[in-house]
């Protein structure tokens, strides 16, 4: 029998021998994280594991704390489970739901209970007791029928829905005292790992403040996002009415053969929203002379297809839309600013020739003919169209680009001439009442599928670049989203079941020797929760066609 097992501890760059069957938590006790905060989980051969997992073969181990991207999510899942227990202890008949992210935190509700300062204080007091008790959180792998019995006793229909719809013999369940939860990611070993949180009354529900990933002893700053909140609430109410508020309900619709209807309804909802936005633009054009529509949003939001479909709606109203891409106003490569690493920084607004852009807008609005540039990404230089652009009284410019809502972009243009649109994929369904679907995951999945199909980019390469993309969004896009006159949610409630068949082979191709393998495994576990849906009924004008192919638009 093997008594010792060799492991490579990546945190200290050392090979060590441990007793066969030693838990990760035991090994972690002899280590200290750079942040001074406890390790929450570990990657074993680049796959995430709870700290109660045992070492039984030679492995490479990398412990993570709250400052790690996935470590922050481990902390949040643990907090949500403990909070659910606190709410259930006080309001056993109330359905507790964490519905979406907002203002750098999370929004939750207790069905039938309107939050007040007194109610929030009581929940916080109970949660403090649960954390102080350092209650263990235990992971079990049980037969599906056993897990269903647990959730039936607790009355958790949301979890019954999702587990019943998945064709698996065994299911993982996490228990915390008399509470049980379902997650597709790791949790901390106990409630004592929760060192910081806050609860506040927010509209009719509760705002959950969580520690900053980069500064774990402080909260993420609460940024006002009233418009974003309204969009989330509108779509959540809509999916509730549709009966597809969570994955289990969505899977049941697909299994019953209603997938085609879901596609038609979701597409009609998009069309209705697009028409409403076009109506507002037309009214602004008539009332105040609005001439330019600025469309902004993070990566893989569907900005291009949105702009093209908006153009069609504006034509119906008698306007003449013309599209311009901000990418065509990039400075020549040698004039592009560099980042802290000395690389060209194409994400900053200073990579654009703002002066020329504003000059062109002013001249176009005066009715002049203007030579518009076309940026050549191969040579890194601007070229110029042979045919100048000229606007007439019915013309509307649609300008698409990540900096569209940054006031610096159009500082020389009068406000009444501008109409600003923010578009993002604000996922409207959830896994269950406790596990929301991260909007960033939805966009990442879209991007992996699109970039592989049209740019030959592997899933591995996309995963490696994603954190850099996210940092650019945090810096250059999200701070300006509330400047929008209107927000558009580009998510489609049926899209993840469609994307599943295209995504799985890409994720399975990621080598387990790569650090991003753990993220690929997490996404596979996530997407595995959905039943497959064929894409044959998706119309050629659908925003999703930008990512899966078959669009009637030219990109």
Q: How is the secondary structure organized here?
A:
Layout: E1 4-9, E2 14-19, H1 24-28, E3 41-44, E4 47-49, E5 59-64, H2 69-90, E6 96-102, E7 105-110, H3 117-132, E8 137-143, H4 144-154, H5 157-164, E9 170-176, E10 179-181, E11 198-202, E12 205-209, H6 226-242, H7 247-255, H8 259-288, E13 292-296, H9 303-316, E14 320-325, H10 354-365, E15 373-376, E16 381-384, E17 395-400, E18 418-424, H11 439-455, H12 459-476, E19 486-489, H13 495-508, H14 517-527, H15 545-548
Helix pairs in contact: 2-3, 4-5, 5-7, 8-9, 11-12, 11-13, 13-14
Give your account of this protein's structure.
It is a single chain. The protein is of the alpha/beta class. The protein folds into 3 domains: 4-65, Beta-grasp domain (Ubiquitin-like (UB roll), Roll), CATH 3.10.20.30; 72-223, Threonyl-tRNA Synthetase, Chain A, domain 2; 233-548, Rossmann fold, CATH 3.40.50.300. It is 37% helix and 18% strand. It has helices at 24-28, 69-90, 117-132, 144-154, 157-164, 226-242, 247-255, 259-288, 303-316, 354-365, 439-455, 459-476, 495-508, 517-527, 545-548, and strands spanning 4-9, 14-19, 41-44, 47-49, 59-64, 96-102, 105-110, 137-143, 170-176, 179-181, 198-202, 205-209, 292-296, 320-325, 373-376, 381-384, 395-400, 418-424, 486-489. A 5-stranded mixed beta sheet has the order 2-1-5-3-4. Strand 3 and strand 4 (47-49) form a beta hairpin. Helix 2 (69-90) crosses helix 3 (117-132), helix 5 (157-164) packs across helix 7 and helix 13 (495-508) packs antiparallel against helix 14. The longest helix is centred in the middle third of the chain and has 30 residues, at 259-288. It is globular and about 80 Å long. The model has no long low-confidence stretch (mean pLDDT 94).
């Amino acid at each position: 029998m093997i008594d010792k097992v060799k492991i490579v501890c990546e945190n200290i760059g050392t090979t060590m021998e441990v007793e066969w069957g030693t838990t990760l938590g035991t090994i972690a006790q002899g280590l200290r994280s750079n942040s001074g905060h406890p390790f929450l989980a570990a990657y074993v051969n680049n796959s995430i594991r709870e700290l109660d997992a045992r070492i039984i073969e030679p492995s490479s181990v990398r412990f993570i704390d709250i400052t790690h991207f996935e470590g922050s999510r481990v902390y949040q899942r643990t907090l949500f489970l403990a909070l659910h227990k606190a709410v259930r202890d006080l309001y056993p008949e109330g359905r507790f739901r964490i519905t979406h992210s907002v203002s750098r935190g999370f929004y939750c509700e207790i069905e039938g209970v309107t939050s007040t300062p007194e109610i929030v204080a009581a929940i916080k007091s109970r949660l403090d007791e649960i954390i102080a008790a350092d209650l263990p959180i235990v992971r079990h792998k049980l037969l599906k029928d056993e897990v269903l019995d647990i959730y039936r006793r607790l009355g958790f229909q949301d979890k019954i829905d999702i587990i019943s719809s998945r064709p698996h013999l065994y299911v993982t369940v996490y228990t915390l005292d008399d509470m049980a939860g379902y997650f597709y990611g790791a949790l901390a070993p106990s409630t004592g790992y929760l060192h910081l949180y806050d609860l506040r009354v927010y509209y009719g529900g509760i705002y959950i403040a969580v520690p900053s990933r980069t500064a774990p002893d402080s909260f993420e700053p609460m940024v006002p996002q009233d418009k974003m909140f309204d969009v989330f609430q509108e779509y959540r109410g809509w999916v509730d009415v549709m009966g597809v508020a969570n994955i289990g309900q969505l899977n049941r619709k697909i299994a019953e053969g209603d997938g085609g209807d879901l596609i038609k309804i979701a597409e009609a909802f998009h069309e209705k929203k697009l028409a409403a936005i076009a109506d507002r633009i037309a009214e602004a054009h008539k009332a105040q002379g609005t001439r330019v529509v600025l469309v902004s949003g993070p990566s893989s939001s569907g900005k291009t297809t949105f702009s093209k479909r908006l153009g069609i709606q504006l034509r119906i109203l008698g306007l003449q839309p013309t599209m311009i891409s901000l990418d065509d106003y990039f400075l020549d490569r040698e004039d592009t600013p560099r980042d802290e690493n000395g690389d060209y920084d194409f994400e900053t607004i200073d990579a654009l020739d703002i002066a020329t852009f504003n000059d062109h807008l002013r001249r176009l609005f005066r009715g002049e003919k203007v030579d518009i540039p076309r940026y050549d990404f191969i040579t890194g230089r601007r070229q110029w169209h042979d045919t100048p652009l000229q606007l007439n009284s019915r013309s509307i410019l649609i300008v698409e680009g990540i900096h569209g809502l940054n006031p610096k972009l159009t500082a020389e243009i009068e406000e009444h001439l501008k109409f600003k649109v923010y578009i993002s994929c604000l996922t409207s369904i959830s896994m269950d009442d406790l596990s929301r679907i991260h909007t960033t995951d939805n966009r990442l999945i879209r991007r992996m599928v699109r970039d592989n199909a049209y740019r030959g980019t592997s899933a591995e390469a996309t995963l490696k670049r994603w954190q850099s993309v996210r940092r650019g969004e945090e810096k250059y896009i999200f701070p300006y989203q509330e400047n929008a006159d209107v927000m558009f949610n580009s998510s489609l409630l049926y899209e993840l079941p469609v994307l599943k068949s295209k995504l799985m082979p890409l994720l399975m191709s990621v080598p387990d020797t790569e650090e991003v393998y753990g993220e690929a495994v997490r996404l596979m576990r996530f997407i595995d929760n959905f039943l497959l849906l064929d894409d044959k009924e998706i119309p050629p004008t659908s925003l999703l066609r930008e990512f899966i192919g078959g669009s009637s638009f030219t990109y």
